[in-house]
Write a structure and sequence with these properties.
This protein is of the alpha+beta class. The protein contains five helices and seven strands, in the order αβαβαββααβββ. It has one domain. Helices cover 23% and strands 26% of the residues. It comes from Mucilaginibacter defluvii.
Length: 160
């Protein structure tokens, strides 16, 4: 069966089998929130990777020119976590909206937006991660860039 957004839930794996599980275990990460992280198998991650590649989202950095009507950014620093959370919540995404996270062709997950925002420092590690977050319509996207920059694009223009 080919993976798509209608059946991607079949690609969910146990959190203990997630390659990034170490980021969440042993931390003050409440069990109720840990249960909301839905890591994806390699097949699920490849589907999301191919989806972004086919959409040409990252043809240029941070996003292909003309993909979004609006692109803005903020810097992530050691002491601005509260600001980042407010900035993200200010984007108008429902806290319960499930969003897709992809680090690379083999590493992806689905989480409620609230969980991403509250624990973004566990999901994104500066210097090592480029983390793309998006909805299935690519109406908006976030790029947590390895250079400590958080990009936001919204208002998709090149719908095909």
């Amino acid at each position: 069966m080919e993976t798509d957004f209608n059946n991607i839930h079949h690609s969910i794996i146990n959190i203990e089998d997630f390659s990034l599980y170490w980021r969440f275990e042993g931390e003050p990460f409440p069990e109720r929130d840990l249960k909301m992280i839905e890591p994806l198998s390699m097949q699920g991650a490849k589907f999301l990777s191919d989806f972004l590649k086919n959409a040409d989202l990252h043809a240029e950095e941070p996003f292909k020119t003309g993909f979004f009507k609006t692109v803005n950014y903020t810097n992530i620093t050691d002491d601005n976590a509260v600001f980042i959370k407010e900035w993200l919540y200010g984007k108008g995404i429902s806290p319960d909206k499930k969003v897709y996270l992809i680090w690379d062709m083999e590493t992806a997950a689905i989480v409620p937006f609230r969980v991403l925002v509250e624990y973004f420092e566990d999901f994104y590690y500066p210097s090592s991660d480029d983390l793309t977050v998006f909805d299935e319509g690519l109406n908006w996207a976030l790029l947590f860039h390895h250079a400590d920059i958080l990009f936001w694009g919204e208002g998709r223009l090149n719908i095909s």
